[in-house]
Amino acid sequence: MAPTWRKEGGEMLVIVAIVVGAILGAAMESDGGVVFGALIGWLAVRSWRQQRQIDALQKGQAGAVVPAAAAAAAADAGTDQPDAHAETAPGAMPVAPEPVTMPLPARSATEPSALAAPALAAAAVDVPLDEPAAAAPTLAGAAEAPPPSRGPLAPLRDWFFGGNTIVKAGVLILFLGLAFLAKYASEHVDLPIELRLAGIGVAAIVLLAVGWRLRTSRPGYAQALQGGAVAVLYLTLFVAFKFYGVLAVGPVFAMMVAIAALAAALAVLQDARALAVIGALGGFATPLLVSTGSGNQVALFSYYLVLDLGILAVAWFRTWRVLNVIGFGFTFGVGTAWGLMRYSPVHYASSQAFLIAFFLLFALVLVLPVRRAEALADRTSKWVNGSLLFGLPTITFALQYGLVHDTAYGVALSALVLAAFYVGLATWMRGRPGLGLTFDASLAIGTVFLTLVIPFALDPRSTAGAWSLEGAGLVWLGLRQGRRLPRAFGYALLLLAGVSMLIGLDHAHPMPTSPWNAVLFNALLAAAGSIVAAYVVHRHAAGIGRERVAEPLLIVWALVWLLSASAIEIEQFVPGRYSLAAWLLILAALATAFSAIAARWRWPGIAAPVLGTMPLALLAAASSAVMQDSPLQDAGWLGWPVMLLAHGLSLKWAAPHWPAAGRKLAHALGALLLAALAALLGRALTKDWGDAGSAWPWLGWLVGPAVLLLLLPRPSTLRWWPLRDEPSAYRSIAAGVLSLGLLLWIVLANIGSTGSAQPLPHVPLLNPLDLGIALALAAVALWARGDGADALREVQPGAVPALLGGIGFLWLNAMLVRAFHHHAGVPYTFDGWSGSLAVQTGLTLLWSALALAAMWWSARRAQRAMGEVGEQRALWIAGAVLLGAVVLKLMVVDLSGTGTVTRIVSFIGVGLLMLVIGYVAPLPAARRSAGATTEETHAA
Question: What angle, rounded to 10 degrees, do the helices at 484-504 and 550-573 form?
Fold first, then answer.
């Protein structure tokens, strides 16, 4: 027998196919789209499963080889059997000299006789639970295998095409002839109708008596006669009531009930499923054969109800699936055909009553075998009829949809009633042995109908929130029970909720007009459902393998819901100037909520998105720098403090769940955000103190970051919270970025500012701009010498000194140019100072003096140092390179000022400085001993 989980998975697959088909059908926006899609999904899975069963059977037949000796022994054993007319008459088993191929499982040597074929062929599909089948003898060397699955109509096929086919064909032809005789006699024969009908009835009773008499000697033949007689009696009573009015409705129904009970009793007493099938087929076919097209649906379905009650009576004693399927198929097939061709609103009351009655009747037929299964302590699910289990709710809801789709909330209420029925059925089955499959299936069907209530009762926007909550519940249930299909269905609902919301935001459903609206409410529900599902996955992550990837995906899906709803709210209800502050408040709220959840549930996954808060806040600060004069305007006075508070809470609650690298990054970005806000506030404070090129606006950018850079590396500062949690993040990362920012500011300020600081006079080096630049360079230099720059020094030892030297060189040149601008009237533009001979002479002398200072300083330190003097030599070489640049500049630039005082000053000044350099700053030796004298160094 196949594992239980495989059976369960197969049935659950049908449910999933029905739901998916219904949802896709609903997207068609047609009246029957939901029903049509559900039916297509069910039929597709049923066809796929049957094809798999056929393929498995063919493989089993091709792979089983039975030894010839075992086959011969089995054939010999089969010779001592009863007469050929008995129920278990033998059939000859061929004996071959070579091994022969036999289908699995191995069959016994006994074969049923021709006349007994109906009962035994039917028993091959559904063995009564109170009569366990005898174990078939196994041929030596043959492997045991489960019997191949057969379709529900296999007993009928075996009955018609096996055994005494002539007798069976004769019964069928006789039945048809009597039906046509009744119709012909009504049109051409003048005998009283009572006599004609009585004659047909007497003939049926005679056939029934003969069949009963032969029940022991010729069981197959007898059952065929009895079945035909039962069908003829049905025919006679139906014609007498409907077409001729010979009998009143009361007696006819009483006699039909008696005939149904008689057929059921005969079938049960003789264990003759074929008899029950024949009687049922004849009874259901009667109104179709003698129909005149009058359209009396009440009589038709009342008659079918009586037949189905007979099937219910048989189901009390026997589990004959094929009989149940025949009743179900005829009843709902004919009902569907009538509904499509003849139904009108005037038929609603009777149609609704019959539909409810048939549904309840076949639901009872479905669960009746439970009584016998429990009596036998049968914990298998072989009694389950999948056609009724899944087909009944599907076709019932389809027909109910046709009845009430024009009624307000009619379809939604119908789905709710069906959901309540199947949930109640599942509740009744819970805890009963052997009902695990039907419990799961009933609960799943109830869930499906509960899911369908939502789109039929609500608009697509409301559907999204409800489906998300339901999807979260299914994910929890699937993980709790260790079943994949409910989880897959839950994930699908969570995803389809987004599709539903997109449909709800089209032109048919305009954007909301009030802040508290369906879009926001259902987005919050959808996000909550996604977060709950993600947490459930997190709690069961150890046992679900690759499915753990659903946790971050669901968290991201929740964020998509929240951010999308926020975007709609801001766009619709927040004026454009306040959009930035609104986004800050939303991001702060999300970060705080996720951090609180992470701390309360000890859930690292939900803490991960909080890492994105600071990058987004820095992006908002950049936007404020471009679009606003001050970060406090347009409700920024509220947004930024709330954001900083949320960041502090996230460092307290969420940071313990972050990886080490993420934790350091979050701390560092928080310090950088504070520096950025300080810079923007400083700019806003000083922007009106002078024109754009003056020193005041530039100094506003500087003060806050420079002060912060001076404070961060201090040991006393690092003892404060939150700096003490990640000191290296502040001392190294944040301070390093601030240093780069200050160096960039120095470059831009020297290029863009004239140094004007009205009303203060301009004094080189002592003006506000130069003092600010000196402060920035000092802060960077202090950081570069501290512990925070250890990693940088290890990688590039000379990078920081070289960078600081280059920035300082630029600053001194800009200071000189600004002095000429303020005191000599040279324009502070590239063309202005590059064309000024006075500025060029000043630059030449400045470069020479700087070269002298660098080379002299290098030489002096080399004389005092012991061992390696590589750094001093590098500084001396830099000064020499600068001196070379001076000489090149003299030849290319200053030489153009022939006959001018500036040219004379340039050449004389440079020449004198070079003489001094040659005397006081010779090239330091690569390595010098401790006793080397100054003269030796000069000689070198």
Answer: 20
Query: How remote is the C-alpha of 715 from its chain's centroid?
Result: 49
Length of the chain: 940
The residue type found at 617 is A
Inter-CA distances, 542 with 479, 546, 601, 695, Å: 11, 10, 17, 62
DSSP structure string for 399-434: HHHHHHTTSTTHHHHHHHHHHHHHHHHHHHHTT-TT
Q: Cβ distance 162 to 224 under 8 Å?
A: no
Place of tokens 């009564």: 128
Backbone φ and ψ of 797, nearest 5°: -60, -35
Which stretch of 577-586, 722-731, 747-756, 854-863 has the lowest confidence by average pLDDT? 854-863
Dihedral pair phi/psi, residue 456, rounded to 5°: -80, -25
Contact 525, 465 (CB under 8 A): yes
User: Which uninterrupted H or E stretch holds 66?
Assistant: strand 65-66
- Of residues 670, 556, 574, the one with CA closest to residue 613: 670
How many Cα neighbours within 13 Å face the side chain of 2? 13
Contact 290, 239 (CB under 8 A): yes
| DSSP structural state of residue 147 | P
Three-state DSSP state, 789: helix
Q: How is residue 582 written in tokens?
A: 């609104």
Q: Look at residue 168 and tell me whether its pLDDT is greater than 80.
A: no
Peptide bond into 759 cis (omega under 30): yes
| Inter-CA distances, 767 with 208, 540, 760, 809, 818, Å | 126, 67, 8, 18, 11
Judge whether 821 and 754 are in contact, CB under 8 Å: yes
Alpha carbon distance 294, 62 (integer Å) = 55
Per-residue confidence (pLDDT) for residue 578, from 0 to 100: 94
Q: How does DSSP classify residue 552?
A: H
The structure tokens listed for 128 are 């009564």
pLDDT band at 693 (very low <50, low <70, confident <90, very high): confident
Q: How confident is the model at residue 721 (pLDDT cuts 50, 70, 90)?
A: very high
Between 181 and 93, the more confident residue is: 181
Residue with tokens 């971050």: 552
Evaluate whether 428 touches 488 at the Cβ level (below 8 Å).
Answer: no
Four-point Cα dihedral 842, 847, 852, 854, nearest 10: 140
- Spatial distance between the Cα atoms of 938 and 924, rounded to a whole number of angstroms: 9
884 residue type, one letter: G
Mean pLDDT of 602-626: 95
Does residue 545 have a pLDDT over 80?
A: yes
Closest CA relative to residue 788, chosen from 724, 734, 745: 734
Instruction: Please name every residue paired with 927 in a beta bridge, in sequence order, or none if there are none.
Output: 868
Residues 680, 624 contacting (CB under 8 angstroms): yes
Q: Which helix (H) or strand (E) holds 751?
A: helix 735-752
pTM, 2 dp: 0.59
Three-class secondary structure of residue 65 per DSSP: strand
Q: Is residue 193 over pLDDT 70? A: yes
Distance CA 181, CA 191 (A): 13
How distant is the alpha carbon of residue 250 from its chain centre? 59
Identify whether 128 is preceded by a cis peptide bond (ω within 30 of 0).
no
Q: Write down the mean pLDDT value for the chain.
A: 74
Sole residue written with tokens 């004996």 = 95
Give the chain's end-to-end CA distance (angstroms, integer).
100
* CA–CA dist 280, 286 (Å, integer): 10
Enter the DSSP assignment of 895: G
Angle at the Cα of 234 (from 231 to 235), degrees rounded to 5? Answer: 90
Integer Cα distance of 257 and 305 in angstroms: 10
Find out whether 894 and 841 touch, Cβ atoms under 8 Å.
Answer: yes
Question: What is the per-residue DSSP string for 590-621?
Answer: HHHHHHHHHHHHT-HHHHGGGGGHHHHHHHHH
